[in-house]
């Protein structure tokens, strides 16, 4: 039976991570020389390494690398934690056109304004019409339908809309990626 190189790479990375965790948590093991005294607060990881996420990614994933996004956020809709990543080979081999509808759903200012409200929590169509000063519920439903088709919004109850929790961090990651800086 031929060995799958991607599976081997992932298994090797997992074994390295387990070894690191076991060494760190070994009973009676001396703390690292640079560890703060017990009970002392250490500087944040970001202060020590402004590229801490990239450093960790490179330590876990061999070349040609991967893309990962993650978030732990408190928003009006509640606490959400999410992480997703893909190896470079997967991303470059994928048919990007498959994502056109999902991306297109975000391509209207009113849809982004609706999503911004939904990040704060579930809203009724009447609330969205009022908060966004829309001409009618028909306008709201038109844009909510496009967001639903793209996977960005759902209707948990009749007349009420929300962002699925698994889409909140991806949405915030996209907004972050669009910042100029």
Topology:
Blueprint: H1 5-24, H2 45-48, H3 52-60, E1 66-75, E2 78-87, H4 88-93, H5 100-104, H6 109-119, E3 123-124, H7 125-131, H8 137-149, E4 154-157, E5 160-162, H9 165-178
Antiparallel strand pairs: 1-2, 3-5, 4-5
Walkthrough of the structure:
- By secondary structure, the chain is an alpha+beta fold.
- The protein has 2 domains: 5-93, no CATH class; 96-178, Winged helix-like DNA-binding domain superfamily/Winged helix DNA-binding domain (Arc Repressor Mutant, subunit A), CATH 1.10.10.
- The chain contains 9 helices and 5 strands.
- The strands form 2 sheets. The chain has a 3-stranded antiparallel β-sheet. It has a two-stranded antiparallel sheet with strand order 1-2.
- The longest helix is centred in the first third of the chain and has 20 residues, at 5-24.
- One of its GO terms (molecular function) is DNA-binding transcription factor activity.
Note the main attributes of this structure.
single chain, 181 residues, alpha+beta, Arc Repressor Mutant, subunit A, three-stranded antiparallel sheet
């Amino acid at each position: 039976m031929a060995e799958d190189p991607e599976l081997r790479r992932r298994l090797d990375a997992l074994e390295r991570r387990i070894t690191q965790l076991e060494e760190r948590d070994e009973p009676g093991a001396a703390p690292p020389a640079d560890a703060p005294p017990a009970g002392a607060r250490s500087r944040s990881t970001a202060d020590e390494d402004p590229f801490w996420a990239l450093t960790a990614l490179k330590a876990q994933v061999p070349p040609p690398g991967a893309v990962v996004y993650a978030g732990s956020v408190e928003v009006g809709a509640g606490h959400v934690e999410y992480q997703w990543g893909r190896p470079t080979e997967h991303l470059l081999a994928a048919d990007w056109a498959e994502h056109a509808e999902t991306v297109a759903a975000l391509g209207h200012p009113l849809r982004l304004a609706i999503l911004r409200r939904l990040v704060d929590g579930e809203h009724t169509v009447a609330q969205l019409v009022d908060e966004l000063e829309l001409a009618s519920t028909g306008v709201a439903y038109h844009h909510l339908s496009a967001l639903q088709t793209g996977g960005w919004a759902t209707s948990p109850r009749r007349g009420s809309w929300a962002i699925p929790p698994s889409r909140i961090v991806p949405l915030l990651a996209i907004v972050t990626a669009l910042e100029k800086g």
